[in-house]
Amino acid sequence: MTWNQDRERIIAAAELGDAPAKTAVALLVDARKRAYDAVRESEAQKTAAIRLREDLVERTSERDAAREEVKTLRHNLMAITAQEQERTEQLAMAEAACRRDATALGEVQAELAVLKAAHAWIKPTDRLPADDARVLALVVDVNGAELIEIVNFIACVPQWRFDYGNELIDDEIVVGWMPLPGRAR
Length: 185
Known about the structure:
The chain has 2 domains: 1-118; 121-179. Helix content is 59%, strand content 16%. It has 2 helices and 4 strands. β1 (133-141) and β2 (146-154) form a beta hairpin. The chain starts with a helix and ends in a 6-residue tail after the last strand.
């Protein structure tokens, strides 16, 4: 309860009434003490109010800083989310391109296998070309050197001849042959 000067005067006048001076002085001292205590209590309340106000200002400042930080974090999160979405889309596009490339690679590998099979060396022990056929021959000499030559095969002899007419010499052996590119076997 706060000190009220008018109320204190009324109380003091009622208490004094016709009281002797000694009693009046005691009552007056007591009233002054109550007034002094009320002033001190008021000052303490003012100090507490100032501290509360300072604390409120500090907490408000902290709250505002926290709100700004949350706002910045939300902005950053939105930017990161957008980047992540873009990366996810890029990844999906890359995966689709990889699937297309894998399909194309499979097709090319299948074509390559067909071409390899069509152009594989045939061992003369497995099969000989037709009479007077002009073919590619894989020729190996005694030193192990390999040559690829266009040769004619003469079935009646049987004999391999270089396209330019010379026969293979004794140290040259045909280890494989294939039809010339663009011709059937």
